[in-house]
Design brief:
Elements (H helix, E strand, L loop, with lengths): L2 E10 L3 H9 L6 E4 L8 H4 L4 E2 L6 H14 L6 H9 L1 H11 L13 E2 L9 E2 L6 H14 L4 E4 L3 E8 L2 E8 L5 E11 L10 E2 L8 H8 L4 E2 L4 E8 L6 E2 L5 H5 L3 E3 L7 H4 L9 H14 L5 E4 L5 H7 L1 H9 L9 E10 L2 E3 L11 E3 L4 E2 L11 H19 L24 H14 L3 E2 L1 H20 L5 H22 L8 E2 L2
Parallel strand pairs: 1-2, 1-9, 2-6, 9-18, 10-13, 17-19, 20-21
Antiparallel strand pairs: 3-5, 4-5, 7-8, 8-9, 11-17, 12-16, 14-15, 15-16
Helix pairs in contact: 1-6, 1-13, 3-4, 7-16, 11-12, 14-15, 14-16, 15-16
Bound molecules: flavin-adenine dinucleotide.
The site of flavin-adenine dinucleotide has 42 residues, from helix 1, helix 2, helix 6, strand 7 and helix 7.
Length: about 500
């Protein structure tokens, strides 16, 4: 007997996009949030620098935020979505504060604003100094607990979208007891985050396997701009380390951090004379990659030693402490850094209300391609995207609530293998292939080789339908890796974070 659950709305993902959407949904609607791990795990909890927003309505400043976003995105951005994001920033930040999220303030109560790469003025709000995500998500989770209409299911992973005639009807979930549950809903929101788990080094948690994107792809939903994978220039470098990499926030460069190669020479002037270390991430990552090549090294340094220990301990308490625990006093020594996977600019294609190409299916946050990031995301615009478009999706769901009713669906008769397989070697190979051939510099012959290797694994995995979380994660990883490589092959020119050598 199959277990069936029914909700008005289900949200896959409990990061900023998922939780903010849930909190904005009408209290009369029954909402289920499903997360594949603990609620406190995911990129939103790791965000350091902050959230970009012109909080006070000033048309010139808003126009500048719009232009900075387009410039960082190499003008590949969707102008309409970008304008909506910068114009609706203030309204959504005020809403966050109103519901109980605390940002860092000056003694007079005004919000403290910092600067980051690609921004021409101080418009980044933060919380807990450099621990914005953890503070913000902690506040939001407590608020969530007060909402009786929202049920949260932790450690329950969605594996497939149920659909008929291009209309989404629900999802199949593997629950905590490792059983198959059919979860039906009038509206389904994908907020499953990024793809860092397909690279050897990423600032993301390894649970970021692109699940939502791969599930949507299997359901025939349009996926776009996947070649635009953003590599953060300053992951904390540890020799031979793979997996989750600690991030040295952009805000360190915002506060005057200088990049030096291993010979101690400042180099950004060669690559971007005007913006230097505050150039957007694609420019800085590509510059570091080149500098590492020229100096036969696998890292460079970030130098913030001209700031006092007191300033650094107050402004960057998390980074200061982390580096100290790893043997570096950043007030006296350079920080070793190298570029690592950080963020996916593309994803499940949506319009400005979060609709995907499938009826009743929405996508928000990092898994979505709203088009606001273009070919390269401007720092701190990601959290902003989560709230602006999460708010819009909730608004639309509220408007349509009177049409909701019982979902009638003929459940598919899926047959799963329950045999034990070990997918570790495939995962290792996916990460190797992506880190070698799908990294900062891409070449036609490498992309073709990557496609061949990944296609083999994709077909082998598709042949066996194993009922396990590990199987689905591996299938999802190879699926998104393959889409990235295919879309990277299609885009012949270098633009934003997609750099083609040949
Ligand atoms: C170290 C770090 C620092 C960052 N700093 C900043 C910053 O300062 N400013 C900024 O704007 N951005 C920053 N970013 C980017 C930003 O944090 C993310 O893009 C954003 O938080 C993504 O939010 P999300 O809600 O889309 O996804 P996430 O917060 O990653 O949440 C994804 C959720 O989906 C769930 N999930 C995934 N797959 C499934 C499945 N199959 N079934 C059920 N649930 C599933 C997960 O369990 C999780 O709850 C940073 C990112 C990192 C990693």
């Amino acid at each position: 007997m199959k277990e069936i659950k029914q909700f008005d709305v289900i949200i896959l993902g409990g990061g900023l996009a998922g939780i903010y959407t849930a909190l904005n949904i009408d209290a009369s609607l029954h909402v289920g949030i499903f997360v594949k791990d603990a609620l406190a795990r995911g990129s939103s909890n790791l965000a350091q620098g902050g959230i970009a927003a012109e909080v006070n309505w000033d048309e010139t400043k808003i126009e500048e935020h719009y232009e900075d976003t387009l410039r960082a995105g190499a003008y590949v951005n969707n102008p309409q979505a970008t304008r909506i994001m910068v114009e609706e920033a203030s309204k959504n930040i005020k809403k966050l504060i109103e519901i109980g999220v605390h940002f860092d303030t000056n003694e007079d109560g005004s919000l403290i604003m910092t600067l980051e790469g690609g921004h021409r003025s101080r418009r980044i709000l933060h919380a807990g100094g450099d621990d914005t995500g953890a503070h913000m998500m902690h506040d939001l989770r407590s608020i969530l607990n007060q909402h009786q209409n929202i049920d949260i299911y932790e450690d329950e992973m969605a594996i497939e979208i149920l659909h008929n005639d291009n209309k989404a009807l629900g999802v199949i979930v593997i629950n905590q007891q490792n059983e198959e549950v059919y979860v039906l809903a009038n509206k389904i929101v994908l907020a499953t985050g990024g793809i860092g788990g397909i690279y050897k080094k990423s600032t993301n948690e390894k649970i970021a396997c692109g699940d939502g994107i791969a599930m949507a792809y299997r359901a025939g939903v349009t996926i776009k701009n996947m070649e635009f994978v953003q590599f953060h220039p300053t992951g904390f470098y540890v020799e031979d380390q793979i997996g989750k990499t600690f991030l040295i926030s952009e805000a360190v460069r915002g506060e005057g951090g200088i990049l030096r190669n291993i010979e101690g020479v400042r180099f950004m002037e060669k690559y971007d004379k005007e913006r230097m270390e505050l150039a957007p991430r694609d420019v800085v990552s590509q510059a570091i990659h080149r500098e590492m090549f020229d100096t036969w090294s696998d890292h460079v340094y970030l130098d913030i030693t001209h700031k006092s220990k007191e300033f650094l301990m107050n402004r960057f308490p998390t980074i200061y402490q982390y580096c100290l625990e790893h043997g570096i006093d950043i007030s006296k020594e350079y920080i070793p850094v190298s570029p690592v996977e950080h963020f996916l600019c593309g994803g499940i294609d949506t319009d400005v209300s979060g609709h995907t190409s499938m009826q009743n299916l929405y996508a928000i946050g990092e898994c979505a391609n709203t088009g606001v990031h273009g070919a390269n995301r401007l720092a701190s615009n990601s959290l902003l995207e989560c709230i602006v478009f999460g708010g819009r999706v909730a608004e639309e769901i509220n408007q349509e609530k009177d049409t909701f009713g019982k979902i009638n669906v003929v459940l598919p008769d899926l047959t799963f293998t329950h045999k034990k397989f070990n997918f570790k070697d495939i995962r290792v190979e996916i990460r190797d292939v992506m880190s070698k051939y799908g990294f900062i510099v891409r070449k036609e012959e490498d992309l073709l080789l990557a496609k061949k290797l990944l296609t083999k694994h994709y077909h082998n995995l598709k042949k066996i339908n194993v009922f396990s979380r590990y199987y689905y994660e591996t299938l999802n990883m190879v699926t998104v890796a393959l889409i990235i490589i295919e879309q990277a092959l299609e885009r012949k020119e270098s633009i934003g974070c997609h750099f083609r050598l040949s």
